[in-house]
Amino acid sequence: MLEGEVDVVADGERHTLRPGDAFWTATGAFIAFYETQGGGVRWLETSAPAPPPRYSYRFDRDWDYLVERLAVDTSAG
């Protein structure tokens, strides 16, 4: 963290990050950042190894949509 403060929810666990803090997760973790002080936030983000060329970012709404589509497609037979 460079500036500001955020709460990070990673796989259901909440953590508060402040300047000087570092945070990492395993591949495939669900992560959400929430600014908590009413101001700006800056952080430096890196990925190693590089993310895959497709499907590296997952959003619940996207997966929910795909589950619904697959259910419709399989019921059509």
List keywords for this structure.
single chain; 21% helix; 77 residues; three-stranded antiparallel sheet; globular; alpha+beta
Concise overview:
By secondary structure, the chain is an alpha+beta fold. Helices cover 21% and strands 19% of the residues.
Detailed description of the structure:
With 77 residues, this protein is an alpha+beta fold. It is built from one helix and three strands. A hairpin with a 2-residue loop joins strand 1 and strand 2. The longest helix is centred in the last third of the chain and has 16 residues, at 60-75. The model has no long low-confidence stretch (mean pLDDT 82).
Helix content: 10-25%
Largest sheet: 3 strands, antiparallel
Spatial order of the strands in the main sheet?
2-1-3
Radius of gyration: 17 Å
* CA(first)-CA(last) distance: 51 Å
Run of helices and strands: EEEH
The 3D shape can be described as globular
Mean pLDDT reading: 82
What fraction of the residues are assigned to beta strands by DSSP? 15-25%
Question: What does the secondary structure layout of this molecule look like, with pairings?
Answer:
Layout: E1 6-10, E2 13-17, E3 31-35, H1 60-75
Antiparallel strand pairs: 1-2, 1-3
